[in-house]
From TrEMBL:
Residues 57-108 form the HAMP domain. It is a multi-pass membrane protein. The keyword Glycosyltransferase does not apply. The chain crosses the membrane at residues 9-28, 34-55. GO terms for biological process: cellular response to phosphate starvation; regulation of DNA-templated transcription. Pfam families: HATPase_c, HisKA, PAS. Signal peptide: none annotated. It comes from Oceanobacillus chungangensis. Its EC number is 2.7.13.3. Residues 113-167 form the PAS domain. Residues 238-453 form the Histidine kinase domain. Keywords: ATP-binding, Cell membrane, Kinase, Membrane, Nucleotide-binding, Phosphoprotein, Transferase, Transmembrane, Transmembrane helix, Two-component regulatory system. This is histidine kinase.
Length: 453
């Protein structure tokens, strides 16, 4: 019965005492036996105290536990449970347990969805910022932090114009709010000396009543796209230039012949020779462009066969020996016996042709060219070296670019298209091989190609 002296039961115990005492005062005029009256009132008081204690255990205590449990649930602790029973309080406990279980399931689903949303938002390739209708930032993803620096807590719950340093971002938000339409713009951003290109989209958010509730900023890195666009423009410009030059030459000489130049047989033959050479140059250029196009096609497949290097070189070496001798060059050939590997024979032959042809074109008279093929662990090593004009170290990273020429005048005079090394690089890459270059100006160049066995 110790619980009777605790709140709130103690208040009822005191009230009951005064009620019994008042009853005794009222009954005194009707009896002379005060001792008997005191005993009866005391027994009555004790009986009522036991009744209060009993009902406290049966009703009040479980209700208090139920209230405490509801407070825990209200705080978000959905794992608490009450003891079930056959009474009405037990039924109440069962209902509360069911509610807690249901809320626990809803909270689990909510947390799972939030986790999935956070994973999606933080792993997207674009930066995301969510701004409410008052201008406060409510969400920001990891990509934005990587792009612009800082920490998430520096942005969240802050006014966008106070924390966003990039003027393009601020203007995009303002335009989205003012126009209530989606906007898309691009801007440049510098990280140190590195120049990056970003595309920003401002998208207003509306509720079911079509009231503006905020805006989302999506920022995408388009630096690679800009580079590709620049490469495309350069490629088109280079192709146009490479085709325009021979066409202009052919047209000029043809017009001269048509205007009466055919009266001189020697002049006619010279002009026709020039027209033939220029048309042959155009044919080579178109063939190289088609080769590059096929190699870069995602559906391109190598025709793999087991090939012997000797079978390839014996077809092309005699021709290059003749060209080398015509330029007063010496071609040295050192090919290891039984170098057999799996590759596309025609593509590998093209590697040999382009490498040796470049060496002959860029090596002056009385120079030397060396072709060496050998096995090295898991690779076939193809090495073509020369004692030619060499390449400046600053220009080496660019030699595999389309139409790039170390010596433009020499390349055009020899009929080069400027695509040979680009083709070699693509062939090596589709074979999952490697290509390396060593060069020194006025001393020569050494090209190394490694193809897997």
């Amino acid at each position: 019965m110790s619980n009777l002296f605790q709140k709130p039961l103690f208040t009822y115990v005191v009230m009951l005492f005064f009620i019994v005492l008042g009853t005794g005062v009222l009954l005194i005029p009707f009896t002379d036996n005060y001792l008997a009256l005191a005993i009866v009132l005391t027994i009555e008081y004790i009986i009522f105290l036991n009744m209060i204690s009993y009902f406290s255990r049966i009703l009040i205590k479980p209700v208090e536990k139920a209230i405490d449990t509801m407070e825990e649930i209200q705080k978000g602790n959905y794992g608490v449970r009450l003891q079930n029973g056959p009474t009405m309080v037990g039924t109440l406990n069962t209902k509360i347990n069911g509610l807690a279980s249901h809320l626990n399931q809803l909270a689990t689903k909510k947390n799972l969805r939030l986790e999935q949303l956070n994973t999606l938002v933080n792993n997207t390739e674009s930066s995301l910022i969510l701004i409410d209708e008052r201008g406060f930032i409510q969400l920001i993803n990891t990509k934005f932090i990587n792009m612009f620096g800082g920490k998430a807590e520096n942005y969240l719950s802050q006014l966008y114009y106070d924390v966003l340093e990039n003027e393009a971002c601020i203007k995009a938000v303002q335009k989205a709010f003012v126009s209530e339409n989606s906007i898309k713009e691009s801007f440049t951003h510098y990280i140190g000396i590195k120049k990056l290109y970003y595309e920003i989209s401002g998208i207003p958010i509306f509720n079911d009543q079509n009231n503006l509730k905020g805006a989302v900023l999506v920022i995408r890195d388009i630096t690679d796209l800009k580079k590709l666009e620049s490469m495309r423009k350069d490629f088109v410009a280079n192709v146009s230039h490479e085709l325009r030059t021979p066409i202009t030459s052919m047209k000029g000489f043809a017009e001269t012949l048509l205007d009466g130049g055919m009266s001189n047989e020697e002049t006619t033959r010279e002009f026709l020779r020039i027209i033939y050479n220029e048309s042959h140059r155009m044919q080579l250029l178109i063939e190289d462009l088609l080769t590059l196009s096929r190699l870069e096609n995602e559906n391109f497949r190598l025709v793999l066969n087991t090939i012997n290097v000797k079978d390839i070189t014996q077809d092309i070496i005699p021709t290059f020996m003749y060209h080398a001798e015509a330029k007063k060059l010496t071609l040295h050939v050192d090919i290891e016996e039984n170098v057999v590997f799996k590759a596309d024979k025609e593509r590998v032959k093209q590697i040999f042709i382009n490498l040796i042809d470049n060496a002959i074109n860029y090596t002056p008279e009385n120079g030397h060219i060396y072709l060496k093929v050998e096995k090295q662990e898991e690779y076939v090593h193809i090495n073509v070296s020369d004692t030619g004009i060499g390449i400046d170290k600053e220009k080496i990273p660019r030699i595999f670019e389309r139409f790039y020429r170390v010596d433009k005048a020499r390349s055009r005079n020899t009929g080069g298209t400027g695509l040979g090394l680009a083709i070699i690089k693509h062939i090596v890459e589709v074979h999952e091989g490697e290509i390396e270059i060593e060069s020194e100006v006025n001393k020569g160049t050494s090209m190394h190609v490694y193809l897997p066995l």
